C-alpha cells in the first residue's frame, strides 16, 4: 500500500471507461470539445494496448486534424493542450471527483494516461452522473475489480505518480472538509442542500472560430491554425468566461444554447510581416461589437513567438477585466437571474467606486456564494469586496478593521482551495497578504497569479503595484506600464501607480502629469499622491487646492496619513520620501 491509499492493483477496462465518461460529463471538467477528444483518444488508445503510439505527431493528426507535415517544434498545440488537460484533471479530482476510486492522470513528459485505484474508496457505480445527482447516488459495496483478461496491470503501463500527486490526492478530503467549514462560517446558512454546480453555465460563452488564411501557401495556413490554438490557450485562463471551439450539444445530440459571442479573424503574410485582424461578434444579431488589427515582424521573435504574442494581445483585448466582454450587453446580462450578473455588478462597482454600487455588488456576491459554493471566482470577488472596505475606507466610508481583513483573507484562501490555478483568487490572496503586513506572502501569491494568466491586465497591474510598493520599483513599474498600455481598468486607476513610479525615480514633472491623468475622485489616496508630488515640486498654491479638497471631502484621512502610507509603502525610505512631500505642501503629518 502506498501514500494516499493508492494501491498497485488492477482496474478493469470497464471501470476506466466509466470513469472517463464520468469526467467528461462533469460540470467541473470545463475544457472545450477538442480537449475532451484529446482525453478520450489517449485513454481509448491506452486501453487498446497502443500507449507506445501516443506521440505528439499521432495526437496532432487524430485530434487536431494536422497533416503529415506536422512539426511539434514549430507547432506546440499538443503540448499546450496537454498542459491544460493536466490542470483540469487536477481541478476535477479536487472538486467533483474527490470521492472517485479510479484516478486518471497524464504524467508530464508524455501523453499516455495512467490509471490508479484509491483503495480506501468503496467501489461505486461508475456510470456518469450529473453533479446534482452525486449527493443522492449510492455506491455498490459488492462491486469488485475485475481480474479477467481485460484488465490494465502495473506491468502493462507505467502507472507511477509523482510524490506530489499522492499528497495532492491525500489532501483532497481535507480540502473539501476545510472548504465546507469555511463556507459555513462565511455565509452563515445552516442549509445542507445548497446548489453545488459550478459557475460555468452562468458565464458568457465565446466560440473561437478557426482564423482564416488570407494568403496562399502552407505557411500562412499553419500560422492561422497556430494563432487559433494560441488564442484558445490564453482565453481559457480567464475564469470569467467559457471558451468553446464547437457548438455545444446536449445529451440528445441537438445543439444546446448558443454561445453569446464568436471570435473570428484572419491572418495575412506580407514578406516577413504577420498581419492579423480579429473581431468579436454578438451571435444574437451578428453585430460586430469589437474589431482590431495587429501587425508584427516575424524576423524579430520568430514565427511561434510572434503568433503567440499576437494571440495574447487578442485574448487580452477580448477577455480582460473591464474590457469589451464586460462592457457589452451589461444591462441585459445583469438583469438576468444568472450568478454572472454578480460578476458584472462587481466590475460595474469598481468602475464607479460609490457606496451604493459597493453595497449592491457585495449583497449580490453574498447571495451568489450560497448558490454557487464551488465557484472560485465568486469567493475571490467577495474577498476583493471586503478588501476594498479596508483599503478604500475613506471612499466607501467603512472602517479598516482587522476583522474585515481576516474575512477577506479567509475568502481568498477558500477561492484558492477551490481552484489553485485561478488568477483572480491568487490576486485576492496577494492583496489580503499585502495589507495584512505579509509582503513576502503577497508577492508569492502575485507571482503565481501572473504566471497563471499574464494576459489578465488586472492581475498584471495589481502585481506590479505590490512589487513597486514593496521596493521592487523597476520590475513593478514595468508591469504597471504594460497594464496601462493595454487599457487596464478601472480607468485612471493604474495611472496613479505610474505617478508613484515616476516620483520614486525622482522625475517629479512626469509624476505630476501621470497623477493628473489618474482619476482623482476614485479614492482620496489619489489626491494624497498628487499633494506629495506638488509639495516636492514647490507648487504651494496648487498643493493648497488639493489639501482643501481633502479637508472638505475626506477629513478623516488627515490624522491617519502616516498609517495609510505605511500600509502601502513597505520600505521606510519610500515612506519618508512620500511624507516629506506632503509636509513640503504645508501639512504636518502626525
UniProtKB/TrEMBL annotation:
The keyword Transmembrane helix applies. It comes from the Bacteria. Keywords: Membrane, Transmembrane, Transmembrane helix. Residues 126-157 are annotated as: Disordered. The chain crosses the membrane at residues 166-184. Residues 134-154 have a biased composition (Polar residues). The keyword Transmembrane helix applies. This is TolB-like protein. It comes from Rhizobium leguminosarum.
Amino acid at each position: 500500500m502506498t501514500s494516499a491509499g493508492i494501491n498497485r492493483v488492477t482496474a478493469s477496462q470497464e471501470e476506466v471507461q466509466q470513469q472517463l465518461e464520468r469526467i467528461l460529463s462533469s460540470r467541473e471538467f470545463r475544457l472545450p470539445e477538442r480537449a475532451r477528444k484529446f482525453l478520450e483518444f489517449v485513454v481509448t488508445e491506452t486501453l487498446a494496448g497502443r500507449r507506445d503510439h501516443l506521440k505528439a505527431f499521432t495526437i496532432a493528426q487524430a485530434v487536431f486534424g494536422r497533416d503529415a507535415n506536422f512539426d511539434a517544434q514549430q507547432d506546440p498545440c499538443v503540448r499546450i493542450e496537454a498542459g491544460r488537460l493536466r490542470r483540469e484533471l487536477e481541478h476535477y479530482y479536487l472538486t467533483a471527483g474527490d470521492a472517485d476510486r479510479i484516478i486518471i492522470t497524464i504524467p508530464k513528459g508524455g501523453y499516455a494516461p495512467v490509471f490508479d485505484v484509491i483503495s480506501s474508496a468503496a467501489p461505486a457505480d461508475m456510470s456518469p452522473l450529473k453533479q446534482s445527482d452525486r449527493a443522492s447516488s449510492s455506491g455498490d459495496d459488492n462491486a469488485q475489480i475485475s481480474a479477467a483478461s481485460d484488465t490494465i496491470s502495473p506491468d502493462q503501463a507505467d502507472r507511477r505518480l509523482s510524490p506530489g500527486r499522492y499528497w495532492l490526492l491525500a489532501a483532497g478530503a481535507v480540502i473539501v472538509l476545510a472548504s465546507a467549514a469555511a463556507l459555513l462560517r462565511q455565509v452563515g446558512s445552516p442549509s445542507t442542500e445548497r446548489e453545488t454546480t459550478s459557475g460555468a453555465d452562468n458565464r458568457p460563452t465565446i466560440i473561437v472560430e478557426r482564423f482564416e488564411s488570407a494568403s496562399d501557401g502552407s505557411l500562412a495556413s499553419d500560422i492561422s491554425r497556430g494563432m487559433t490554438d494560441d488564442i484558445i490557450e490564453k482565453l481559457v485562463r480567464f475564469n470569467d468566461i467559457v471558451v468553446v471551439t464547437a457548438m455545444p450539444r446536449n445529451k440528445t445530440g441537438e445543439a444546446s444554447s448558443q454561445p453569446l459571442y464568436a471570435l473570428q479573424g484572419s491572418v495575412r503574410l506580407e514578406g516577413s510581416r504577420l498581419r492579423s485582424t480579429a473581431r468579436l461578434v454578438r451571435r444574437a444579431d451578428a453585430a460586430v461589437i469589437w474589431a482590431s488589427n495587429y501587425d508584427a515582424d516575424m524576423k524579430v521573435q520568430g514565427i511561434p513567438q510572434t503568433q503567440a504574442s499576437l494571440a495574447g494581445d487578442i485574448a487580452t483585448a477580448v477577455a480582460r477585466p473591464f474590457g469589451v466582454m464586460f462592457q457589452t450587453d451589461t444591462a441585459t446580462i445583469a438583469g438576468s437571474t444568472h450568478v454572472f450578473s454578480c460578476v458584472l455588478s462587481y466590475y460595474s462597482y469598481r468602475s464607479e467606486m460609490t457606496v451604493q454600487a459597493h453595497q449592491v455588488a457585495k449583497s449580490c456576491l453574498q447571495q451568489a456564494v450560497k448558490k454557487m459554493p464551488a465557484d472560485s471566482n465568486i469567493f475571490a470577488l467577495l474577498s476583493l469586496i471586503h478588501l476594498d472596505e479596508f483599503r478604500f475606507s475613506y471612499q466607501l466610508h467603512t472602517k479598516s478593521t482587522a476583522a474585515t481583513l481576516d474575512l477577506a483573507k479567509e475568502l481568498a484562501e477558500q477561492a484558492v482551495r477551490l481552484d489553485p490555478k485561478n488568477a483572480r483568487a491568487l490576486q485576492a490572496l496577494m492583496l489580503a497578504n499585502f495589507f495584512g503586513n505579509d509582503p513576502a506572502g503577497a508577492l508569492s501569491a502575485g507571482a503565481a497569479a501572473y504566471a497563471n494568466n499574464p494576459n489578465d491586465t488586472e492581475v498584471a497591474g495589481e502585481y506590479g503595484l505590490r512589487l513597486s510598493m514593496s521596493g521592487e520599483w523597476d520590475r513593478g513599474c514595468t508591469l504597471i506600464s504594460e497594464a496601462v498600455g493595454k487599457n487596464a481598468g478601472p480607468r485612471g486607476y493604474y495611472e496613479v501607480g505610474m505617478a508613484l513610479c515616476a516620483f520614486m525615480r525622482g522625475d517629479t514633472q512626469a509624476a505630476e502629469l501621470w497623477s493628473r491623468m489618474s482619476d482623482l475622485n476614485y479614492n482620496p489616496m489619489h489626491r494624497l499622491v498628487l499633494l506629495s508630488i506638488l509639495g516636492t515640486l514647490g507648487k504651494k498654491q496648487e498643493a493648497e487646492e488639493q489639501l482643501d479638497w481633502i479637508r472638505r471631502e475626506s477629513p478623516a484621512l488627515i490624522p491617519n496619513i502616516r498609517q495609510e502610507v505605511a500600509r502601502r509603502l513597505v520600505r521606510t525610505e519610500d515612506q519618508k520620501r512620500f511624507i516629506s512631500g506632503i509636509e513640503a505642501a504645508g501639512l504636518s503629518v502626525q
